[in-house]
Amino acid sequence: MQESSYLILGLGENATLQEVESAYKALKDKYQRQCFEEGETGSFAAKMLSKIKLAYNDCLDDIRKKEFVGEGSIYDAVEKLIEDNKLNQAQTLLDNTEPRTGDWHYSQAHLFYKRNWFLDSKTQIEIALTLDPDNQKYKSTLDAINKMQANIDNQEKAQRQARAGYSAPQENGGSMAGDSICNYCASSLCCSVPCLFCFC
Asked: 132: left (phi > 0), else alpha (psi -120 to 50), else beta?
């Protein structure tokens, strides 16, 4: 949000959506009339039209964010949206969140994973770990993704060998991605998104 966006509209930071819309409309009407005047008045009005438009958009983003978040954190709200499969809304909320901390990248990883963008998800977890190298949640998730990818690679290799007339010995025990994935998800590759981010 640009500095003092609410103040630019003549409002306090707890302004409602209706107050923001009303203030913006009044200021826009004022400066639209003035921008056709000659000299400094017209030039100033044109600049203000651009400034209040940015302030208006910033305030709308802030109000939407507050509606999603409620009493919890931004990342609680993002996780809830991902859980509810409202992925576009979750992405919008993340896009409007600064600074981009380890938790930001972890949530982005979860969102990418939910979309089955596994390499992008892994990249985001790796970024999260560079920002917070001691975070066990990030480490466990990256380990689980790596194990799952290794298992998928092994299955693809076995399928290629089978098509070529070879057969690989079957290993006993072990889950698809180790103990970090629940037994249900580990038992079947038809589960498109194993629960790497919930550790059930």
From this structure: beta
Tell me which residue of 186, 188, 191 sits closest to 200, measured CA to CA.
186
The two tokens of residue 174 are 């072990």
Q: What's the predicted TM-score (pTM) here?
A: 0.55
Query: Helix, strand, or coil here: 16?
Result: coil
Amino acid (one-letter) located at 104:
W
**Start-to-end CA span in the chain (Å):** 37
Task: State the amino acid at position 3 in one-letter form.
Answer: E
Q: For residue 98, how many other CB atoms are within 10 A of its CB?
A: 8
Tell me the pLDDT tens digit for each residue of 76-94: 888 888 999 999 989 988 8
Dihedral Cα 96, 1, 48, 32, nearest 10 deg: 40
Residue 84 buriedness (CB in 10 A; 0-12 / 13-18 / 19+): exposed
Residue with tokens 């998730």: 141
